[in-house]
Task: inverse folding
């Protein structure tokens, strides 16, 4: 997997350097431009790596196939997660960023594949901001996520992701050894100001002290 295999954007830090790289993963129907403003708001001193999902659902980009709403194609999810992990490693070589300091910022479908990458290829991510995620799958054996930091941001009125799904995912990642913060927004599936505030504060506390 080469970096060129994904349509993507790479943006160097807007304000110096020193806060690693944010891997921006859009939701269904999004593209490589959607989460750039969010990434810049969360960490102006981070590099931004933003790929476009390679699966089309009725013309809308996604990161993996699903069989129905909330029902994922497991084999495709595993294959696409491994391809994304390989892409990150390739992009690190191409753009010369520290592959050990990559934090995913994923929304909806992007959050789901970020969680899957953590479970399948834990070496890829130092942490993740999972915005409106579901449980991507339940592994037969949990990996060791010791030292990883994860923010799960859920909406109390979300009609797409049941609240219990977010809780189960947070519990699973915590059982694997990750340090997990569960944030509840009063809103629905869309993001609101409380999500941005929570993500910014969480990232500052978890990663800004590192170089």
Result:
């Amino acid at each position: 997997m080469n970096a060129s295999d994904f349509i993507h954007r790479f943006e160097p830090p807007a304000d110096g350097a020193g806060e690693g790289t944010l891997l921006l993963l859009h939701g269904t129907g999004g593209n490589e431009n959607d989460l750039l403003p969010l990434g810049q708001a969360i960490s102006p001193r981070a590099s931004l790596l933003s790929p476009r999902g390679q699966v089309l659902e009725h013309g809308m980009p996604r990161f993996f196939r699903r069989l129905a709403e909330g029902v994922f194609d497991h084999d495709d999810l595993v294959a696409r997660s491994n391809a994304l992990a390989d892409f990150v490693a390739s992009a690190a070589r191409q753009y010369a960023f520290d592959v050990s300091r990559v934090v995913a910022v994923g929304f909806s479908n992007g959050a789901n594949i970020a969680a899957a990458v953590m479970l399948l290829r834990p070496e890829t991510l130092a942490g993740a901001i999972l915005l409106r995620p579901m449980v991507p799958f339940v592994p037969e054996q949990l990996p060791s996520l010791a030292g990883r930091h994860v923010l799960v941001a859920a909406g109390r009125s979300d009609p797409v992701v049941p609240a219990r799904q977010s809780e189960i995912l947070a519990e699973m990642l915590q059982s694997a050894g990750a340090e997990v913060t569960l944030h509840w927004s009063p809103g629905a599936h869309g993001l609101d100001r409380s999500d941005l505030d929570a993500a910014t504060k969480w990232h500052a506390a978890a990663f800004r002290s590192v170089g």
